[in-house]
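worker-03 picked up job from queue 'complexes'. Input manifest follows; two sequence lines, order preserved.
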Amino acid sequence: MKINKEKKEQGKEKHGKHGCLRGCLIFFLVIVVIVGVFLILFFRVPQKIGIVKSPAERLLAPTPDRDGAKTLLSEVAAAGLNTEGIDLYVIPFTDTGENLAIAVLNESEGFSFNRSTGHNPLIQTMIDLTTGDTAQELNVTRLSLEYRDESSQSLMTLSASTNDIKQFASGAMTQQEFMNVLEGKINYPAVLSTQISSIYKFFE
Amino acid sequence: MKLRIKKIIIPMALLLFIGAGCTRSDKDLAIGFLMDWAVSQGIINEDGSPTWSTLARSTLGTSTGDPQTDAAIDAGVVAKSIKDSDEQIDQADQALANDQPDREKALDHLNQAAKIRPDDWYIRNQRATVLAETGKDPQKDTTRADKSCDKLADRSQRRCLERVYANRAEFVEASIARQIRSRGKVKCTTYELQAATYKELGRYRLTPFEVGDTYFDAYQRAQTQASQPGVTCAP
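worker-03 finished. Artifact:
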């Protein structure tokens, strides 16, 4: 009788230990799942693998204004910007109907900066592309600027609203303030590899 | 571990600055600007080491919180798709520019372009026109082109439709000229497409453009041309 009681208690103990282990495992798994879901959403994995459309695919699906882009490019060329190696697209945002100007500056196709102005040439290019009459007529509210090197490798994409660019151009915003509102993406591996190869070239 | 990461990252960041200062090529200028921006954004600390959260955002492209800004930062993908489809359009144009236009070849290129950018009404309009030129029904493409404007914000839809029909009218006019030049007669399907286009254009635009008279007159004229297959148009 006594032996049976001991066995039952041992069983209970064992059962209790299993329960804790199971509970801990479940708790741990829940935490892992929550963290996993957070990371998946944070790094926009569903958009990257094509399950969910990225904002670019969703908002920039409409037809680009091909004629508008040509007019804008000729206007900035007339104003002195070297348009060789610039691919320019004007495309409406689906949600607002306002236009985004996408400029791809491709060194491999002959792009070079205009260094004759006082501003940083990259910012000057932004100003040239967004502050003219045509950009205003086309209702360009944002610029996306991608820089590609001599091997056509993308080094960065920067974006600013036309309003911010205009404010900087008019002097209402300092360069530091403008840098703070500028958004972008860096292709770090590409930047690093180009810098390392230029250092090698320097020592050769 | 943390120390080891810093040991790797700091020299790398230093290399960026040193490298940017060595030469004055356009690329170095751009990278120099990029580094200034990275410092001002807090992507790189004062000591040159990147901050992990902003580094992740900048390299892996996490959200900025504003969908339009996110779209603009990722716009390179869109630019590439437009460039690729435009190359197909150019090749289609070349195939049509010959004395004897190669319509099937043009259609192949336009199919490729439509595959890259399915909601691009410019491609759909051109494909519809070439289909009509070969005697086929262009309605599937015209409907798709018209519907592409539905995705836009309400106030932009009307302007979009005006542009869709105006562009289609231009393509049809060019197609008629091409057919007269290459085979003397115009396909009835082309005149039908022209009539439908001017009818819609009349609904959306009040003032005539480059047709010499009103859209209603142009519509009637196209309908008359389409009404007698074998006489006024090629069946």
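worker-03 released lock.
The first helix of chain A runs from residue 2 to 42.
Strands of chain A lie at 86-92, 99-106, 140-148, 154-161, 183-186.
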